């Protein structure tokens, strides 16, 4: 390869690399930096309608103020607000009602799941015969088959005896009974 072609190839490679860098920088500079404003402190809310929907806040009707939800406890302690006066999520349902509703809903779901599992297990047991039933059915079929074989053997033996002593009639035509009389 000639030195001129090598120089030209190197220049072309450098140009492509520079173009890719410029393209990447232009895409990055097109994006705008978005900063979220700091969250509004709970104390700034002055009504239950604005405080309760915020998941971080708790409205207390005892002193009509909005406070931070005490995340270190599952339920707000009485020092923050009484459960009957605390509102979280919606204003029309106090914490006691919310706890009772959640307990009833959770219990109903657990009972439903348990009932479904029991029904499925019982149905599965009824649909599949157990080993004793299968063994009993198999023995019954074997006994019936042996009895049928014995009946066929007995009938064949009786027919041979009848034929030997001339008691067997030809049943080729329907009037064979009346010919001997």
- Average predicted confidence as pLDDT: 80
Q: Which shape, going by the Cα principal axes?
A: elongated
Helix/strand structural class: mainly alpha
SSE pattern: HHEEEHHH
Biggest sheet overview: 3 strands, antiparallel
* Total count of strands: 3
The Rg value, from CA coordinates, equals: 47 Å
The tally of helices reads: 5
Main sheet strand line-up: 2-1-3
Name the poorly predicted regions: none
State the helical fraction.
Answer: 55-70%
End-to-end gap:
127 Å
Strand content is 5-15%
Features:
3 strands, three-stranded antiparallel beta sheet, mainly alpha, about 5% strand, about 180 residues
Q: What do you see in this structure?
A:
With 181 residues, this protein is mainly alpha-helical. Helix content is 57%, strand content 6%. It is built from five helices and three strands; from the N terminus they run ααβββααα. The protein has helices at 3-30, 48-51, 95-127, 131-164, 176-179; strands at 57-60, 65-68, 86-87. Strands 2-1-3 form a three-stranded antiparallel beta sheet, with no helix packed on it. It is elongated and about 120 Å long.
């Amino acid at each position: 390869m000639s030195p001129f072609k090598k120089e030209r190839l190197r220049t072309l490679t450098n140009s492509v690399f520079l173009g890719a860098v410029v393209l990447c920088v232009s895409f990055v500079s097109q994006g705008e930096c978005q900063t979220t404003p700091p969250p509004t402190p709970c104390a700034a809310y002055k009504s239950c309608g604005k405080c309760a929907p915020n998941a971080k806040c708790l409205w207390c009707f005892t002193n009509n103020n909005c406070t931070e939800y005490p995340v270190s406890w599952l339920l707000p302690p009485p020092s923050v607000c009484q459960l009957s006066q605390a509102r979280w999520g919606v204003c029309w349902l106090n914490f006691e009602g919310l706890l009772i509703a959640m307990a009833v809903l959770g219990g109903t779901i657990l009972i439903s799941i348990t009932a479904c599992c029991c029904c499925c297990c019982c149905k599965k047991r009824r649909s599949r015969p157990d080993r004793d039933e299968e063994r009993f059915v198999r023995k019954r079929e074997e006994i019936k088959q042996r009895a049928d074989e014995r009946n066929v053997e007995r009938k064949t033996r009786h027919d041979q005896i009848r034929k030997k002593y001339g008691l067997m009639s030809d049943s080729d035509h329907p009037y064979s009974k009346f010919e001997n009389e």
